[in-house]
């Protein structure tokens, strides 16, 4: 006979819980959606994923991209560049 006091099985986190939409990321970073579109076209912005017409950004990928920007700036300053 199964134990009647077992808690219900844990539900997994929503599949897209760690993702930003383009609009959410633009608000978070203080830029416009158009800026993020230009960055995507020039391949200079945070990496994104397209699902149909929807563009999503993974939170940890955005954080890594921000860190890269910080490191690139620090390295340029050390070399005396701009």
Explain this structure to me?
This protein is an alpha+beta fold and 82 residues long. The mean pLDDT is 89. β2 and β3 (54-58) form a beta hairpin. It has helices spanning 22-29, 33-42, 59-79; strands at 19-21, 49-51, 54-58. The termini are far apart. The longest helix is centred in the last third of the chain and has 21 residues, at 59-79.
Key descriptive features of the protein:
alpha+beta, 82 residues, 3-stranded antiparallel sheet, Arc Repressor Mutant, subunit A, DNA-binding protein, 3 helices, DNA binding, 3 strands, 48% helix
Give a topology summary.
Layout: E1 19-21, H1 22-29, H2 33-42, E2 49-51, E3 54-58, H3 59-79
Antiparallel strand pairs: 1-3, 2-3
